[in-house]
Amino acid sequence: MTPEDAIRKIAALCRSGRQVNEEGRTGYRIGKVFIDTGGLQRGVTSCPHCGALMGMGRIVVRHDDGRNVSFNPRLFHYVEAGHPITSRDVNGKLLVAIMSDA
Amino acid sequence: MPDFMEDWLSPERLEQDAVYLGVLTAWGIKPLSRLEYPVRPWVLALFRQMALVTANITRYAADGTRVEHLVLSRDAQLVERYRRRFDGRHLGSETARLVRIEAYYFGYPPCCAEEYIRAPNLPGDLPCADQALLFHRACTGCTVTPQLIPLYRAALAEARRLCSRFSPTTLSLDAVR
């Protein structure tokens, strides 16, 4: 699994619409992993690569064992559009490790 | 794109955000705001009623796509400074310098901008409902943002009132001209 695959998997889970509330946090559950979508903020920004509008904020991917990793929801667009993802965008190794153990 | 993101980027949501930014700017909470999407004439008319100065800014994505932004402020000189700095330029990547410049124009607390530069994906500790009011990510333990929350909440309520009163879906455009 690559970081792009992990983000696609998270996008697909969020698209399923089975939103849950766990300990006051809103998000989606897949096995041992909770995708916390409660960190969204207002506003949009233009993609520097192609000009498309992207959302702002933070998605937190939390494993039940305590590991967690965050990324900006603009990565959903980056992955769909095939734009590069850097280490500043997300800790790819940790994201893959968590999602591989979901 | 997840469904919640599509709702977030819906025309209705963006139009309400535009009016919300207009109120925040007209009240002086934000020195300048930037809309990265087109808005209908009734929103522009509302900005004029709020005595906001606007300017169209053209930017270019890396692939050459032309992107039109609209900036608004009570301060015509600030709009002009923004125009001189950004009009006709590429969007560029998110550098520390750009984050600081945008924080200055958009009224983001410097502490939040600095934490964002250091660690853009830190979880933060602001309640979700409060974070969802903001156009910036509050830094961990922020002492400035909590003071802004009541102002942002009041501005959002005013924006909703203006949308329900003036949106063409409920009233003629002539009402705001």
Distance between the termini of chain A: 12 Å
The chain-level structural class of chain B is mainly alpha
Percent strand of chain B equals 5-15%
Q: How helix-rich are the residues of chain B, as a percent range? A: 40-55%
Radius of gyration of chain B: 17 Å
Largest protein interface? A-B, 40 and 39 residues
Any idea what the shape of chain B is? globular
How many separate domains make up the residues of chain B?
1
Number of strands of chain A: 5
Q: Which regions of chain B have little confidence, pLDDT < 50, spanning 5+ residues?
A: 171-177
Radius of gyration of chain A: 13 Å
Give the tally of β-strands of chain B: 3
Question: What attributes characterize this protein structure?
Answer:
heterodimer; A: 102 residues; 5 strands; globular; B: 177 residues; mainly alpha; 3-stranded antiparallel beta sheet; 3 strands; 11% strand
Strands, helices and their partners?
The complex is a heterodimer of chains A (102) and B (177).
Chain A: H1 3-15, E1 19-22, E2 25-30, E3 33-46, E4 53-63, E5 68-71, H2 74-81, H3 92-100
Antiparallel strand pairs in A: 1-2, 2-3, 3-4, 4-5
Chain B: H1 3-8, H2 11-26, E1 32-35, H3 41-49, E2 53-60, E3 66-73, H4 76-86, H5 96-106, H6 110-118, H7 128-131, H8 145-166
Give a quick rundown of the structure.
Chain A is α+β, with helices and mostly antiparallel strands.
Describe the protein in words.
The complex is a heterodimer of chains A (102) and B (177). Chain A has three helices and five strands. Chain A has helices at 3-15, 74-81, 92-100, and strands at 19-22, 25-30, 33-46, 53-63, 68-71. The longest helix of chain A has 13 residues, at 3-15. In chain B, 50% of the residues lie in helices and 11% in strands. Chain B contains eight helices and three strands. The longest helix of chain B has 22 residues, at 145-166. The interface between A and B is large, with 40 and 39 residues.
